[in-house]
Amino acid sequence: MNEPLSARQPQVSLRPSACPGLLRIVQAKDGGICRIKLAGGALTADQADAVATAAERFAGGEIEATNRGNLQIRGIGSEQAGLIEQLLAAGLGPRDAAGDDVRNLMLSPTAGVDPQMLFDTRPLAEQLLKTLETTPRLHQLSAKFAVQVDGGEGLAMLEHPHDLWLSALQLDGERWLAFGLAGCPAHDAPLGAVPLAQGHALVLAVLNRFLDLARPEQTRMRQLLAECSPEDFIAGLGLSIRCDSTVQQWRRQVTAGSGYLGTYPQLQPGLSAVGAAAPLGRLTPSMLRGAARLVRELGDGSLRLTPWQGLLLPNIARHDVSAVSSGLTQLGLLCSADEALTRLVACTGSAGCAKSLAETKGDARVLATLLTCGAPASVHLSGCPRSCAMAHVAPATLLAQSPGHYDLYLRDAARPGLGNLRARNLTLKEAGALLDARSRSTLDD
Ligand code: SF4
User: Fold this and answer.
1) pTM attached to this predicted model
2) For tag attachment on the chain, is the N or C end more exposed, with fewer CB atoms within 10 Å?
């Protein structure tokens, strides 16, 4: 039997959060938001059904796939306790109520099945999540403090900044974990490396040292590193860290492109994963239920959420791949990068967020019809400068100024923020024409 809800309310945190969680429903313009943090993005078919039912029964049926491989239910009405109980009954809660916020551990959506991986990250992730959820001291971390474990998979989001990232590499015939602080494997050199078997100890040492050194108002690693050098930070970890030039010169190979859409052959012979994007990050209950049905019938009864705001259905026999792809397409999911909507990201917009100056999601749908080049570079429509919808800067950002009008920024690695301001106050038609005119190579990720 589940514990009563009252017994599962989190304690007061040293770094309180305004972000939604499973047990903390935050009000927005369109109702309450509940964020369901998934272990490595994994969801069973039964859990997908439970989320769909909860969204219909207690909210307006709006479900979001987030850019960290989690789910959100929006538009929740007054029966919040009922919604939470339903999600807990489906096994979607943390082991300890106070551990909900700190379940921020990102893996590749092809963890354990990717042909290029150096190791299966899932057992280490499971061990880390258990420690995070059940160690009271770690609950003093902020709800945004995030860790990435990268097993070297070909399909991985490597650009999202994390407070701590670990990335597998091969050194002298052994597997190691390179790591860095307040950055990402795609752009940053490692600070050091530890043998793979030391991965759990390294993460714990980093989290505890952060809590030892950070003041309560310092919620993220980058804030602490403004006062404490990375070298001083790792010198106090109490672990033997390899920091030689071989490690420091190592760089994670990044596979560009849209491999998260369509068929992705697995390590396991004869099996593939099939990926699809949720249009502008939105899933309907029927999409989730339909995907659950597909994995029950043709997969292994599980699915994964991706950091590209979509789904990945693993362990599909090669001869069933086309049936799964067409099933996902019929549900309204996007399986091909040829569809312009797969390259557009939009925040909630004025329909659900009081801060937004434009209806970004509706505008993105209009923009998708105006882009004539088939697959333009990725474009992010943001209702205000907070840029909630992207964890890293997009090649092109349209920042709302008023309904239907946007400033266009193009990413520039040499500049902080959104990049270079290229045009002001564009209509959607003007923005579409300008984006179309840009060469793909200039804008592509
Ligand atoms: S980016 Fe701004 S407008 Fe868009 S959802 Fe976030 S806070 Fe709201």
Assistant:
1) 0.92
2) N
